[in-house]
């Protein structure tokens, strides 16, 4: 844990690297909205909490930028719904 989520603007995705493996969330910025299209973790990272840590970083970025999140990805939607402290970010 303790990895940093970085915004790979060129690839339009947020990335979290852990042990040389990447979890990422493809996104699109639309005005004040942050649309999360897809969240994926490399196979070795699945079940390790990496995708959850990635989402934690994403909601913190969205909040700091004053954005709302439109989760098109089922995982992103379910994660935000489970973490009620971020429900105000749902669009």
From TrEMBL:
It comes from the Bacteria. InterPro entries: Acyl_CoA_acyltransferase, Gcn5-rel_NAT, GNAT_YJDJ. Pfam families: Acetyltransf_CG. Residues 6-91 form the N-acetyltransferase domain. Signal peptide: none annotated. This is N-acetyltransferase. It comes from Microvirga arsenatis.
């Amino acid at each position: 844990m303790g990895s940093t989520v970085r915004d790979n603007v060129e690839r339009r995705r947020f990335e979290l690297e852990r042990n040389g493996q990447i979890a990422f969330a493809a996104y699109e910025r639309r005005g004040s909205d942050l649309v999360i299209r897809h969240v994926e973790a490399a196979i070795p990272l699945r079940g390790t909490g990496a995708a959850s840590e990635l989402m934690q970083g994403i909601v913190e970025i969205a909040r700091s930028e004053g954005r709302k999140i439109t989760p098109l990805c089922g995982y992103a939607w379910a994660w935000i719904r489970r973490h009620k402290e971020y429900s105000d970010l749902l669009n």
